[in-house]
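Thread: quick sanity check before group meeting

JM: Hey all, I'm pulling together slides for Thursday and realized we never actually wrote out the predicted structure for the chain we discussed last week. Dropping the sequence here so it's in one place. If anyone has concerns about the input, flag it before I start.
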Amino acid sequence: MTASRLSFTLAVLIAIAGMTWGIAMAISHDHSTLPAHAHLNLLGWVSLFLMGLYYRGHTDLDGSRIALLQVVVWAAASVAMVAGVGLIYSGAPQAEPLAAISSLVLLADMLLFAWLVIRAAR
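JM (edit): ok, ran it. Output follows.
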């Protein structure tokens, strides 16, 4: 499994989940979890797909364990953060630590991705 293939696969699965969630909100007329839905689409669908494109264009990184780890951590932390934000907006403020910790993991993972991008540019 390459980082790009995993990124693309997870991105489209998350896009389907995000679209389903959006349709469910529209049908129910309950848009209280809209911020979580937006985070799912941006972090899951858009970011993973863009990372996949980057890795596909950099074949030396695409097959590396570190790139694969970066994608796995990004996907897991994105889902965790979306769950935390969704719970917060659903009236469960006790989910704030989940949202906060996963946000910090996402930041650390973006720093790893930035390091990979900058290192590859040299």
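AS: nice. The two ends are 26 Å apart (CA to CA). The chain has five helices and no strands.
JM: adding both to the slides.
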